[in-house]
Write a structure and sequence with these properties.
261 residues, mainly alpha, Endonuclease III, domain 1, 2 domains, elongated
């Protein structure tokens, strides 16, 4: 990680500077290769499961549907629902996998070379059209597979909790507040997010330094929900395995790989 990036973040935010000093060098490194279909299929498998269970399902998926190699979109569409369910996928995840395969063959989910040429928000807009793929999942792909430097997953529970801990707050910041504060970290918000994940590790170990100064969070108006005729509010975005309705959506739990420290 470039010292220039760390110097920029430290000068922009004294509290983050203290966290950077406590953690040490940033070890955020993207995967050497990114295969969009495979990455998103793996993300679908991991949704709402721990890593061990998801990897077991993926192994069955590779052995059964892919005959030892990661299945292609054509293989997924040719596989029976029964065989995909036997691998351990829920009905919702089978539907998501098939939609991912369809949209990959239609080039809505592009190959790696085409994906690399797109901007972050364009990638989010395209990939979230796949059933079961939300913004948070795409943000993880942007950070850990594509190495995009300016991604701030404000809905991630780990990032919000890390901010609360590092900045000495009593409760989690609202996503809009975290987004507004994070403007000072541009264009290296991915690195800032990585350090916020590490803040939780330091807090658990009792090694988190106190904030360098008292923090006054920006005032941000709450998001207004659009009201349509015949409805009191718009339905929340659909997520794989989720329910629509008036229940509050939980913030995505952070699944940033611990091996990236």
């Amino acid at each position: 990680m470039s010292q220039h990036i760390l110097a920029h973040l430290s000068s922009a935010d004294p509290v983050l500077a203290g966290l950077i000093h406590a953690v040490g060098p940033c070890l955020l490194e993207p995967e050497s290769e990114c295969h969009p279909f495979q990455a998103l299929a793996q993300a679908i498998a991991h949704q709402q499961l721990n890593g061990t269970a998801a990897n077991t399902i993926l192994k069955r998926f590779i052995d059964g549907c892919g005959q030892g190699a990661f299945p292609t979109p054509q293989m997924v569409l040719a596989a029976s629902e029964r065989s995909l369910r036997a691998a351990g996928f829920s009905f919702a995840k089978v539907a998501a996998l098939r939609d991912l395969a369809d949209k990959t063959l239609a080039a809505l989910v592009p190959e790696a070379a085409a994906l690399l040429a797109l901007g972050d928000e364009e990638i989010v807009a395209r990939l979230t059209q796949v059933r079961g793929i939300g913004r948070w999942t795409v943000e993880m792909l942007l950070m850990f597979r594509l190495g995009r430097p300016d991604v701030l997953p404000v809905d991630d529970f780990g990032v919000r909790s890390g901010f609360r801990a590092a900045y000495g707050l009593r409760k989690l910041p609202r996503p809009q507040v975290l987004a507004a504060w994070g403007e000072r970290w541009r264009p290296y918000r991915s690195t800032a997010a990585w350090y916020l994940w590490r803040a939780l590790e330091l807090e658990r170990a009792g090694q988190l330094p106190p904030p360098a100064q008292r923090v006054r969070l920006p005032r941000v108006r709450p998001r207004r929900r659009r009201v349509t005729s015949g409805a009191s509010s718009s339905a929340p975005p659909r997520r794989s395995g989720g329910r629509s309705g008036s229940r509050r959506r939980r913030a995505p739990r952070s699944r940033a790989p611990g091996s990236r420290r």
